[in-house]
Amino acid sequence: MTCAHYVSASLANRTELLTYQIDADKRTIRTKAVGYVTLQEVIDHFRTLEQDPQCPERADVFLDLSEAESLPEAPQISTVIRELKRIRPKVRFEACAILASRNALFGMMRMFEALAEEFFRVTCTFRTATEAEAWLVSQQSLDGHKPSDGS
Questions:
Q1: Under CATH, which architecture does the 2-143 domain have?
Q2: φ, ψ (nearest 5 deg) of residue 30
């Protein structure tokens, strides 16, 4: 499992953080945003992910924004879409479960779903972690990919 942490240099003594973990057996990338995450930190996340030797060619994503304080605007979401397109030769995303409990962020992530549909097999935004986790597992079962140990 790989874990990477991003902290903006100007904000290092605060709790703004964007992290990810890769579970190679389950072909899942779990990304978590805490505090105020900048667009540059998101772009850096994709660049680091792209170069991570543990990053699978195909992966499901659990995007946890439950502790994120920032709210992306439409132009920022468009920039994220461009990053998804740019890294597509390295990794193709399958199912993406997005956890966004705040109303405004939930709405922006629904917009992201629509704009990013060509870069995922399927996406869905949830308000609770339990629902998001269950949905992601159900999508993994539908796709037929299970952990390499057969469980």
A1: 2-Layer Sandwich (3.30)
A2: -110, 115
